[in-house]
Amino acid sequence: MTSTIIQWNLNGFYCQLEQLQLLLSRHNPIIVCLQETNFPSNHVGKLRQYIAYNKNRTTAVHASGGVATYIKEHIPQMEITLNTPLEALSVSVLLSVQLCICN
């Protein structure tokens, strides 16, 4: 079994959702790291069969920036708290080895 990770600066989750869903169906990634999600400050888009972690931009007049990491539900995972003002997040995942996914 291969473990695919997708990383994409998509500049808007909802405007790229159709393409994102196509990538998910073709490659069935276990981890998806997205940048420039452009979610409002208290929102995250959902992807079926994934647990979502996100850090949105809270200082903008309109929705912009932000990151989101999606990890398949069956993968052991735990968010790692980062003490930073950056739009960044980190999640520890256990595959055949333990990885720290930073986005």
Features:
four-stranded mixed β-sheet, 103 residues, 7 strands, 35% strand, globular
Please explain how this structure is put together.
- The chain is mainly beta and 103 residues long.
- It has one helix spanning 17-27; strands spanning 5-9, 31-35, 50-55, 67-72, 77-80, 90-94, 98-102.
- The strands form two sheets. The protein has a four-stranded mixed β-sheet, with no helix packed on it. Strands 5-6-7 form a three-stranded antiparallel β-sheet, with no helix packed on it.
- The chain is globular and about 40 Å long.
- The two termini are 24 Å apart.
How would you sum up the global shape?
globular
> Please, how many helices?
1
Radius of gyration: 13 Å
Gap from first CA to last CA: 24 Å
Helix content: 10-25%
Let me know the average pLDDT.
90
Give the strand order, joined by hyphens, for the main sheet: 1-2-4-3
Brief rundown of the structure:
This protein has one helix at 17-27; strands at residues 5-9, 31-35, 50-55, 67-72, 77-80, 90-94, 98-102.
